Amino acid sequence: MIPAVLPTYNRAPLTFTAGDGAWLTEASGARYLDFAAGIAVNALGHAHPVLVAALSEQAGRLWHVSNLYRIPEQERLAAMLVEKTFADTVFFTNSGTEALELAVKMVRKHWHAAGQPERTTILAFEGAFHGRSMAAISAAGSEKMTAGFAPLLPGFRQLPFGDHAALKAALDETVAAVIVEPVQGEGGIRPLPDVCLKGLRAACDAVGALLVFDEVQCGMGRTGRLFAHEWAGVDPDIMMVAKGIGGGFPIGALLATEAAAAAMTAGTHGSTYGGNPLGCAVGAKVMEIIAEEGFLAEVRRKAGLLRQKLEGLVAAHPEVFEGVRGAGLMLGLKCRVAPADVVAAGHAQHLLTVPAADNVVRLLPPLTITDDEIAEAVARLDAAARSLAPQAA
């Protein structure tokens, strides 16, 4: 008999009832060190007092009015994002997947308005993850996500990750846009080198194609800059944001230049809940905290400390781990054993991590993680690796 909750998740046998900073309390009373952060969502940890206060205060005043009316909290957060990024305008969604849907519509509408309605092809990359809607899985194209859901939406082509020759051959004046994650998350914590992002920007400019960055997982301070593409010194035309921007509250956003968004006039897109007062009140507080250079400098420092300790862990357990990859506090352990086994061994040590493709375990701690908690997490990973060593041998 099918359960009341549709069984589309392979859930761990853990039930968390409370959280505080980098720690979660399970129903049994056991405390777990959280290096998953809700899959890079709880950027400021659990129950951050500033976010709790912002949500509580807004909840006591107004929850929802719809986008039929002006929403001051939405306008404030949009202004903050415009001030801190390349963007001229922002549309708020409830998730990264919804932001992807708008990105596709915006690209197609842009070229329709430009008198080239046939210019619809969007290039994406193998290993990408852009969400689970039909457009999102059509863009990513992996069999794992698309099997059984045919026919897929047309207009997407996938290129091999890091294959410059394939990109050069595919990117011409018929291409509408290229969409890419500056750091692939689900794909196995694979950063696109800065020189590649620069080259991609130049290649798109050469043929007039729009460049779309998916920073749903790698954005909002995760790599030590507000957004990961800042390291390369290039800007997209359109960018998807979600996860960390709400610090745990469901909110996403689509950021764009005026040129890319100009055709999206009244009635071309909408959302009942997107940009509601609750989400935007919390998002504004998250932005205030994360966008501070002092905060981001600390993220970079702690990222260096974590990476150093992880390199030592890999050296101590070469039969379990192959290497460390990633950027900032978005790191991955390339494993010689099944990532699911490493995650399960971590659970036994009361440590939470996240599996990914390419035999990688993701480490996505809150950006507020402390030095002592970093040391504790690596010690628990060490114990987990020791428990797996006989299996690896």
Describe the structure in your own words:
This protein is α/β, with parallel strands linked by helices and 393 residues long. The chain has 2 domains: 16-34 and 293-392, Aspartate Aminotransferase, domain 1; 50-290, Type I PLP-dependent aspartate aminotransferase-like (Major domain) (Aspartate Aminotransferase, domain 2, 3-Layer(aba) Sandwich). The chain contains 13 helices and 17 strands. It has helices at 37-40, 49-59, 72-84, 96-113, 134-140, 143-146, 164-170, 194-207, 258-261, 277-290, 293-316, 339-348, 371-392, and strands at residues 16-20, 23-26, 31-34, 89-93, 121-125, 156-159, 175-180, 183-184, 190-191, 210-214, 238-241, 252-256, 321-327, 330-335, 351-352, 354-356, 360-363. The strands form 4 sheets. A 7-stranded mixed β-sheet has the order 4-12-11-10-7-5-6, with helices on both faces. A 4-stranded mixed β-sheet has the order 1-2-3-15. Helix 2 (49-59) runs antiparallel to helix 10 (277-290), helix 3 (72-84) runs parallel beside helix 10 and helix 12 (339-348) crosses helix 13. The longest helix is centred in the last third of the chain and has 24 residues, at 293-316. The radius of gyration is 21 Å and the shape is globular. The model has no long low-confidence stretch (mean pLDDT 97).
